[in-house]
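User: Could you walk me through two proteins back to back? I'd like the raw sequence and the structure tokens for each, with a short line separating them so I can tell where one ends and the next begins.

Assistant: Of course. Protein one, sequence then structure:
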Amino acid sequence: MNISFNTGNYARVYRAKTSTQYNKNTSSLSRRENNISKNQHKVYLKSDDMLYSGGNGSGLSFYIKYADNSSRDNPIVIAKGIDENGKEFEQTININEIKPSNASIIEMRALEAHLNIDKRGGLTSLPKGAGFLGLNDRCDFIGMFKNVIHDMKKIGRYDLARIYLINLRIYSDFEKKAEYLESNYTK
């Protein structure tokens, strides 16, 4: 395994060479899927100026920083990273325009970090279903929270249901405030 460091963007690149032996009975599809000479994952190490650094199970890996033109009233962040297909990306996100009922995982991580939401000792304040979302996947996080709360109550995990309920309220209140401001101040 080769490990290289890139201090310019605080990235660590891991490369592992794999060898695959084929069985004559293996289908050509599974041969193509297993014919990988290198696996590459990029992990961004969090620095002091980053709001968030991480990824998820889809292969998405990214970091989020405030943009130079960000202000208290108009917070703007830049998200940079590698998508689930191994392609580099950069997105500019206006925090005030995020709608948790129709958001990407990148937008929700930006909102989570900006609002400094208590993760209760875990890695995230978001529902478990968000773990495999890709770069351009959008979903209703408010609905996801409601479903997880329902499931936690059903199995008697009222402690976890309460934590998810607290986070649901924070994200719902943010969306309601944004809708109120948009309807009253953009006319």
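----
Protein two, same layout:
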Amino acid sequence: MNLRQIKAWSLTIATRTYTKRREILRILALIASIANGLAFIPQLVKILETHSVRDLSLATYTSFAVVGIIILSHLYLEGNWYLGLGVGLTLFFTLTIQALIVHFGTNCIPLGVLLLVYMVTLSGAIVLMIFYVNALRDLWKLFMRFLDAR
């Protein structure tokens, strides 16, 4: 084996190792983003059981929603649907809790704040629909390619 062959062989091994690590990291990111979204379920259950949102901050959940909309929009433009699935789940639960805060606590919320919250919620719902429709379309294409390869 000459030096050129050894370099080519080591580059092949390094590329395979990098690809495996990248796929493992991608799977871990998917699991973490889904776990992050599911972490909102206990709060949602507590709200539905007690009908109380007294200790929750509408500003916090609105900021979560705004950040989620921005991140999901970026992931959509990048075509990063696997991470977007978890971010979309987080955004869904954030918007749901935000709506419950407005529903159960409307007596003390100023009208301007309510309008802002409704705009964020509507924007979030639109971004979620666009992202998931396109993610499902891409998954369908992958599935059809898989069937064609057989």
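The chain has a mean pLDDT of 80.

Let me know if you want the two compared in more detail.
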